[in-house]
């Protein structure tokens, strides 16, 4: 059976639609075309540059040793932008943050795992990384408003994080054939959504998720060969990448 894991909070927002059926169709497609690579090495690179003070050339050589070319090329598109953003940043401390869960409804607990926080001069910074190359959540998108609203709720429940400066680092390309660019989004500029609208959107996603589970029953999981072909040829972003 094709596996439909519970998506992250960011991917919940990305795959929302106005109708549960549309959400369901998106999740089914993504379950049948799962990602087979990870952006995790970039978080290690941030730590190496920001905390350990490793020279950029050393970090670049490390990423360049990744064996799969398609993965290596994707990471090397982003690494210079990360270096440019954090160059000259000297945090007083750096800390990993444990996973949280947000209750969406119908027993659905959606994971939220911040990559890190760091502090400078008494100010706590909470950067969120969006590595999608195309179709990112834009500042005028209601789905981004939902994501930021939910993150606000999570941060406010933690006395260690409720004063953090929450910013989004968007590493997408402005057009499909253009290089990636870094856009730093101050989440204070993003409108929050009402409680009523939030509940409507989350209920729509929960219904779509449950419909997807029903549709996927009995469907075979894609083979490794099919996943490799999809990874090379498809521009459809994965559910968890």
Structure description:
The protein has 241 residues and is α+β, with helices and mostly antiparallel strands. The chain is built from 8 helices and 7 strands; from the N terminus they run αααααβββββαββαα. The strands form 2 sheets. The protein has a 5-stranded mixed sheet, with no helix packed on it. α2 (20-32) packs across α7 (195-216), α3 packs parallel to α5 and α4 (56-64) runs antiparallel to α5 (69-86).
Outline: globular
Low-confidence stretches: 229-241
Spatial ordering of strands, largest sheet: 1-4-5-6-7
**H and E string:** HHHHHEEEEEHEEHH
What separation lies between the terminal Cα atoms?
21 Å
* Average predicted local confidence, pLDDT: 87
Portion of residues in helices? Answer: 40-55%
Q: Largest sheet, described in full?
A: 5 strands, mixed
Output the structural class.
alpha+beta
Region (Disordered): 219-241
Biased composition (Basic and acidic residues): 223-235
């Amino acid at each position: 059976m094709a596996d439909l894991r519970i998506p992250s909070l960011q991917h919940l927002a990305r795959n929302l639609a106005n109708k549960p059926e549309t959400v369901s169709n998106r999740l089914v497609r993504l379950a049948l075309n799962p990602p087979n690579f990870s952006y995790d090495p970039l978080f290690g690179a941030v730590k190496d540059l920001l905390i350990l003070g490793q020279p950029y050339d050393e970090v670049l050589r490390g990423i360049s040793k990744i064996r799969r070319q398609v993965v290596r090329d994707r990471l090397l598109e982003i690494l210079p932008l990360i270096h440019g953003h954090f160059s000259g940043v000297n945090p007083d401390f750096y800390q990993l943050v444990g996973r949280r869960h947000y209750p969406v409804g119908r027993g659905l607990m959606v994971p939220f795992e911040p990559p890190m926080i760091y502090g400078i001069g008494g100010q706590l910074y909470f950067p969120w990384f969006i590595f999608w190359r195309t179709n990112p959540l834009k500042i005028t998108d209601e789905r981004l408003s939902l994501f930021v609203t939910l993150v606000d709720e999570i941060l406010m429940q933690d006395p260690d994080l409720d004063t953090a400066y929450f910013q989004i680092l968007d590493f997408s390309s402005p057009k499909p054939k253009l290089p990636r660019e870094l856009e730093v989004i101050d989440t204070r500029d993003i409108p929050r959504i009402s409680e009523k609208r939030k509940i409507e959107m989350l209920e729509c996603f929960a219904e779509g998720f449950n419909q997807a589970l029903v549709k996927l029953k009995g469907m075979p999981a894609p083979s490794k060969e099919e996943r490799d072909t999809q990874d090379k040829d498809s521009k459809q972003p994965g559910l968890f990448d």
